[in-house]
Amino acid sequence: xxxxxxxxxxxxxxxxxxxxxxxxxxxxxxxxxxxxxxxxxxxxxxxxxxxxxxxxxxxxxxxxxxxxxxxxxxxxxxxxxxxxxxxxxxxxxxxxxxxxxxxxxxxxxxxxxxxxxxxxxxxxxxxxxxxxxxxxxxxxxxxxxxxxxxxxxxxxxxxxxxxxxxxxxxxxxxxxxxxxxxxxxxxxxxxxxxxxxxxxxxxxxxxxxxxxxxxxxxxxxxxxxxxxxxxxxxxxxxxxxxxxxxxxxxxxxxxxxxxxxxxxxxxxxxxx
Length: 272
Fold this sequence. Notes:
Number of helices: 9
Helix content: over 70%
Low-confidence stretches: none
Order of helices and strands: HHHHHHHEEHH
Distance between the termini: 56 Å
Strand order of the largest sheet: 1-2
C-alpha cells in the first residue's frame, strides 16, 4: 500500500511538473515576441511553412465540409419546405464552429507534427545544445517565430476555410437542391448580420469564429515546440514526440473550443 501511494505521488508530481514546464515555455515564447533581437526572416519562413503550404489541405477540407453540410441539411429542411435557408445553416456552422476547428485540426496534423519532428531532430543531434553554447536562446530563436507565425496564419486559414465552405454549400444548393445563387447568398448575409454587431462594428459570428483560431494557433505551436524540445531517445523519440503532438493538440483544440464557445455565448448574450 505505501508503495502504491509513493507511485501515485510521483505520478502526480510528474504531471504537475509537465504542466508547469508547458506554461513556462508558453510564457517565454509569447514574451520574446516583443524582445530583441527580432528574427523576422525566421518568422516569414514559418508563415510560409504554416500558412501557404497548408492552403491546399484547408481548401479541400473547407470545400467538402460545406458541400456535405448543404447536402445533409437539405434532406431535413425539405421536410419543412425550408430549403431556402440552407445558406443560413451552412454559414453559421462554418463561421462559428467547423471552420476554426477543422482548420486547427488540419494544421495540427500537418504543421504540428512537422515542428515536433524538426525540433526533435535538432534536440537528439545536439543542435539545440550548440545554440546554447553560442549564447543564443533556443526559445527565442526556434519557438517564438513558430508561435508568432501560427498566431498570424491560422486566422487567415480559418477565413479561407469558412469562405470556401460557404462556396461549397452554394454549389450543392444551386445544382442539387435547386436554390438560386442569389437567394443562397442573401440568406448567408442575413445569418451573418442576424445577431447584430459586437461594438456596432464586427458581426457577432465573426467574433466567435475569429477569436478561436488565435487560441488554437498558440496551442498547436506551443504544444509542438514543447514535445519537440523535450525529445529523448534518438529517432524513436522523434516519432513519439510527433505522435504526442498531434494527439495532444487535437484533444486540446476540441476541449478548448467548448470552453471558448461557452464563454463567448455567455458574454455576447449578456452584452445584448
